[in-house]
């Protein structure tokens, strides 16, 4: 029950890592504002009405103002923000349109910036030693062909995390990042063909593709008081994918 009496906001909460994170926070006592463009999956109602479903597009310039109004009306403060919402556009670099580029950046980077700004302002106003956790990707540091806008946003997100951490540290607010590897979510499943899965399992030292709950565990650690002395960090949750330099199937002698 690390989050008893805590108020948390989770974006991308209708499915995947966002859903797993919101579920874990609820299970550990938090009041959760679950944010997504549209909520399509049923939720069990926790005790005392601790779940608030908000239909918000994080790319909407008005999203921050609307979230702030909900938080002030229903809770009065906020302790945790988990920026999980993200989209992936698959196209060769030479064929990416400006529209596709702008949409991926609006959700994965611009939306994170301005929702974090909204939440951080409320934390500072209420003198809350809050936690902001951003969700990057192994592809911030490992190339992913045909996903240039996505990889650009994840690299930018990690750099932005460090700057946010520096600026918000005097207010007692920590800002950290989780860097997932291969994870089974609604976004990733369409590209996880049998061939891709075989290649991934050969590349990942621990030999498994993660369920979203494993990433949610890392997010909740960084969102908890257990991580009170960690800020500006990026935690790999990738089964060893990014660090491994071995050649699959090759034995050195």
From TrEMBL:
InterPro entries: KR_dom, NAD(P)-bd_dom_sf, Sc_DH/Rdtase_CS, SDR_fam. The keyword Transit peptide does not apply. It is an enzyme of class 1 (oxidoreductase). Residues 6-181 form the Ketoreductase domain. GO terms for molecular function: oxidoreductase activity. Keywords: Oxidoreductase. Coiled coil: none annotated. Its EC number is 1.1.1.-. Belongs to the short-chain dehydrogenases/reductases (SDR) family. This is SDR family NAD(P)-dependent oxidoreductase. It comes from Dactylosporangium cerinum.
């Amino acid at each position: 029950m690390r989050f008893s009496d805590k108020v948390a906001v989770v974006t991308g909460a209708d499915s995947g890592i966002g859903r797993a994170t919101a579920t874990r926070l609820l299970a550990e006592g938090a009041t959760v504002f679950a944010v997504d463009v549209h909520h399509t999956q049923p939720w069990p109602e926790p005790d005392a009405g601790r779940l608030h479903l908000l239909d918000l597009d994080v790319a909407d310039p008005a999203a921050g103002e609307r979230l702030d109004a909900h938080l002030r009306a229903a809770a009065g403060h906020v302790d945790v923000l988990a920026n999980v919402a993200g989209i992936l556009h698959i196209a060769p670099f030479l064929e990416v349109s400006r529209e596709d580029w702008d949409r991926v950046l609006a959700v994965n980077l611009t939306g994170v910036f301005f929702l974090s700004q909204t939440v951080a302002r409320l934390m500072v106003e209420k003198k809350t030693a809050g936690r902001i956790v951003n969700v990057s990707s192994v592809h911030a540091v490992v190339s992913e062909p045909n996903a240039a806008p996505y990889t650009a946003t994840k690299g930018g997100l990690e750099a932005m995390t460090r700057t946010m951490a520096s600026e918000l540290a005097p207010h007692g607010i920590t800002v950290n990042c989780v860097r997932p590897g291969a994870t089974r979510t609604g976004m990733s499943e369409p590209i996880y063909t049998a061939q891709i899965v075989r290649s991934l399992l050969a590349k990942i030292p621990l030999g498994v593709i993660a369920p979203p709950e494993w990433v949610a565990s890392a997010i909740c650690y960084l969102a908890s008081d257990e991580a009170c002395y960690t800020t500006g960090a990026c935690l790999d949750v990738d089964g060893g994918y990014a660090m491994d330099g071995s050649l699959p199937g090759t034995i050195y002698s």
